[in-house]
Amino acid sequence: xxxxxxxxxxxxxxxxxxxxxxxxxxxxxxxxxxxxxxxxxxxxxxxxxxxxxxxxxxxxxxxxxxxxxxxxxxxxxxxxxxxxxxxxxxxxxxxxxxxxxxxxxxxxxxxxxxxxxxxxxxxxxxxxxxxxxxxxxxxxxxxxxxxxxxxxxxxxxxxxxxxxxxxxxxxxxxxxxxxxxxxxxxxxxxxxxxxxxxx
Length: 199
Hints:
The chain is an all-alpha fold. It has one domain (44-198): Ferritin, core subunit, four-helix bundle (Ferritin), CATH 1.20.1260. It is built from seven helices and no strands. This is DUF305 domain-containing protein.
């Protein structure tokens, strides 16, 4: 009798374990799959917010310079590069602005961001306004040359901010974007250095 009771108890415990495991499996497989996207969007910290806010303003500065170079640069290669920068960074601005809206965070203007003393936000010590004023005062290949010099510094600032996001960010999508920004802008820096050497 004792052996039978032990066998029955063991069998019952095994059945209960399998039943609980099945329930747990349903919860662990189906529920996260349905909520993973919203959970990822909701996961963010201060580093993610600052990254998105600053990178939006930074990208807007790049778009302003690239738009001017696309219209005014002398060489076809520089104009084409400027157009590619516009095409790439416009959608990234929309993406990050969308995140800020989901997170309930405001988008500060450029003046607010300037007060944050972030190394990636200026070019050779110049503000966005000063850089644009200098560009508009040039003509011919001087536009191409100065645009490339300023955009190289601008890209280096973006890489710096993206590296900080990789180290400190919590939101998976924002961290992924930071990695893409580093890869894309380092490649463009190398391209711009080549174009600059040919001018």
